[in-house]
Amino acid sequence: MDMNSSAQQNNNLPLLRISNLQTRFHTQDGVVHAVNGISYSLDSGEILGVVGESGCGKSVHALSIMRLIQIPPGEIADGEIWFEGRDLLKLSENEMRRLRGRDIAMVFQDPMTSLNPVYTVGFQICEALMLHMNMNRKQARERTIELLNLVGIPEPTKRIDNYPHQFSGGMRQRAMIAMALSCEPKLLIADEPTTALDVTIQAQIIDLVMNLQKEMGMSVMWITHDLGIVAEMVHKINVMYAGFIIEQGLVDDIYDETLHPYTKGLLGSLPSIDEAPGTKLISIPGLPPDLITLPSGCPFYARCTYRRDYCREERPELESVNANGHAVACWRWREI
Amino acid sequence: MSQNKQLLQVRNLKKYFPISSGVLFNRKKRYVKAVDDVSFEVYDGETLGLVGETGCGKTTVARTLLQLYHPTSGQILFDGINLTDLPENEMRKIRSRMQMIFQDPYASLNPRMTVGSIISAPLDVHTQMSRNEKREKVQELLQLVGLNPDFVNRYPHEFSGGQRQRIGIARALALNPDLVVCDEPISSLDVSIQAQVVNLLEELQGRLGMTYIFVAHDLSMVRHISDRIVVMYLGKVMEMADRNEIYLRPQHPYTKALMSAVPIPNPKKARTRQRIILQGDIPSPINPPQGCNFNTRCPVAQEICFKEEPVYRELAPGHFIACHFA
Question: Are A154 and B193 in contact (CB < 8 Å)?
Fold first, then answer.
């Protein structure tokens, strides 16, 4: 498909469509199967939450979209990532570099390590503008001040010449968001952007991203391990476990009609704000499986309270549950 | 809980850290007022939650309680004994009755020691147990925290974050302490593992009857585990009350903001609620604002808040607050 025709078809094509993505890492101990054939699509202006524990492949899948997986030891073994009518996995490194930061931008978990300490915050934001938007230094500086203002940094004309260590954690994350939004991307990938922050600052950042999303109409992918955070902000949710999507659907379906035992466990782990005193949390026993020696049956078998012997034999595929895209990968979802 | 005896009383506790300025004379001119006039008490067998943002002094309070920092002024009475003027050798004996669980399970376990020697370290210092007795005790402790007793000879790197935190808990319980100070024990863990650790802490309290001080920045888990809650901001106590009182009738604007920052895992409820989003960051404790500490971020601040510091007073029985408008 050539690029002109794909631009016209934008209205009915999803912005991002991933099919059967598989990412592996070849390590000394063996092959780590980080992402094991996931497929989903994301429309323009949609907000998607990707939820799961550490090591379930959610960050690796995001880095695969950005083609930021180091090869070797990494390998994108199979799959397609269609973004605006182009398969990102077939682009050259040069084409990919033009796309990164301009069409797809990413905000990382740790604002302390993702800014370069020896350059001013302003310089780091200007850099992207000059590279992708063909601005000269003066235009880039003006736009950067606008952006810092947009993300709520006080006195942007002064703050633009500050170094990252002069910013607090919340302000650094705001600066990172300003940088990510500088080229008005169509897709913003936020990889646990609030995990390192206080709850009050977390609320500020969520509010900021929501407002910017409404203003700019971009799509957002919000990666987190906490189902509580995404409840109020996303349209759709992918729940990941051991590199598989084990449940996906609209946010209300996921919370009201929770089907997969793992999703139930994640929700049960959160204390609810109106619980009765003395309520016990429903935790998920055990640990996620080793991604080197994946079990052949259901990956959640070892920790599942509803398991049966046959669950161990064959891995359940995602099965559609309703017309709104709610799907679950569990042999027993009808019974439990 | 209030009919129980008071295990710990903290009176007007202050901890200032000096900042040296000037190269030549190294004059100590300014101070970080990490903890500034904090008073509360802890009843026997209860769990007291200590909440606040980064830099509010909650960890400093926790460490000062155990005399890991020497307080600038104030009193800490543990079982009636004033810890602040106790000689070091007497303090050492009392420390066996108060233990701490640390935030970072990666930094708080020595990577060169086996799990067995980590857990038996307090036994080496404080008891005269024989080698076999210690070995038995360690295995018993591992079992208590839900780890396989055969793991004694493994090293910390062989365990996941949640399992390491269990090792830290086993170490804290080795001497059957009366008071365990949990300094953000779950904030570096995944939610599913957080629930495991919190359930374990509750279960152990039910079985062994010790008292917890649970320090955290996340009000939802604190509310789950605590009987009473102390809300701190910039080195001072803003509000203290029973957990349900804090939840149903929060009076301080800061407590209200913290409550509304807690994510609700229910999309319908989350969409309809009114959120109070605080502007800006916590100010520097070197140069705290005049008047009420919270005035730079308070949504209801009036003129008086910038002039006068509110008095910390008892609003209703057991419900304390420092705000002009409550």
Answer: no
Bridge partner residues of B182 (DSSP): B101, B214
Residues 6+ apart with CB under 8 A from A119: A163
Q: Give the Cβ contact number of residue A117 at 10 Å.
A: 9
Taking CA atoms, A86 is separated from A10, A16, A70, A92, in Å, by 12, 9, 21, 12
Please give the model's pTM, rounded to 2 decimal places. Answer: 0.85
Number of helices (H), then strands (E), belonging to chain A: the values are 11, 12
B287 CB contacts (<8 Å, ≥6 apart)?
A: none
- The two most distant CA atoms of chain B are separated, in Å, by 68
| Whole-angstrom distance, CA of residue B264 vs CA of residue B180 | 29
Residues of A in contact with B196 (CB under 8 A): 283-285
The alpha helices in B20-130, defined as continuous H runs, are 58-65, 88-95, 115-126
Question: Which residues, in sequence order, are CB contacts of A54 under 8 Å at separation 6+?
Answer: A225, A288, B190
Distance CA A283, CA B199 (A): 8
Q: Alpha carbon B90 to chain centroid distance?
A: 24
pLDDT at A248: 95
Among the partner residues A171, A199, A279, nearest to B218 by beta-carbon distance: A199
Q: Which is nearest to B258 in space by CA: B232, B234, B235?
A: B232
- How many CA atoms lie within 13 Å of A1's alpha carbon, on the beta-carbon side? 15
**Contact status, residue A231 vs residue B264, Cβ threshold 8 Å:** yes
A183-232 pLDDT per residue, tens:
889 999 999 888 777 888 888 888 888 888 998 889 999 999 888 888 88
Residue pair A40/A250 in contact by the 8 Å Cβ criterion? no
The CB density around residue B88, as the number of other CB atoms within 10 Å, is: 7
Size of interface A-B (CB pairs under 8 A): 118
Compute the distance between CA of residue B124 and CA of residue B119 in angstroms, rounded to an integer: 10
State both tokens at B280: 């800006």
Q: Are B141 and B174 in contact (CB under 8 A)?
A: yes
Q: What is the ipTM of this complex?
A: 0.81
Contact (CB, 8 A) for B151 and B113: no
C-beta of residue A124 within 8 angstroms of C-beta of residue A179 = yes
Which residue in B158, B104, B96 sits closest to B125, CA to CA? B96
Q: Which two tokens stand for residue A290?
A: 């080793």
Which of B184, B192, B298 best tests the A interface by mutation, with the highest count of A CBs <10 A?
B192
Cis peptide before A73 (omega within 30 of 0): yes
Chain A nearest C-alpha distance from B122 (Å): 28
Q: Do B270 and A252 touch (CB under 8 A)?
A: no
* Interface list for chain B against chain A, based on CB atoms closer than 8 Å: 53-54, 160, 162-163, 190-196, 198-199, 202, 217-221, 223-224, 243-244, 247, 257-268, 270-271, 275, 277-281
Measure CB to CB from residue B191 to each of A170, A266, A285 and give the nearest one. A266
pLDDT tens, N- to C-terminus, chain B (326 residues):
445 789 999 999 999 988 876 666 666 678 888 999 999 999 999 999 999 888 888 889 999 999 989 999 999 999 989 998 889 888 888 888 999 998 888 889 999 999 999 999 999 989 899 999 999 999 999 998 988 888 899 999 888 888 899 999 999 999 999 999 999 888 878 888 888 889 999 999 999 999 999 998 888 889 899 999 999 999 999 999 999 899 888 999 999 998 888 888 888 888 888 888 888 778 888 888 889 999 999 999 899 999 999 999 999 899 999 999 87
Token readout for A291 is 């991604």
A92, exposed or middle or buried, with CB in 10 Å at 0-12, 13-18, 19+?
Answer: exposed
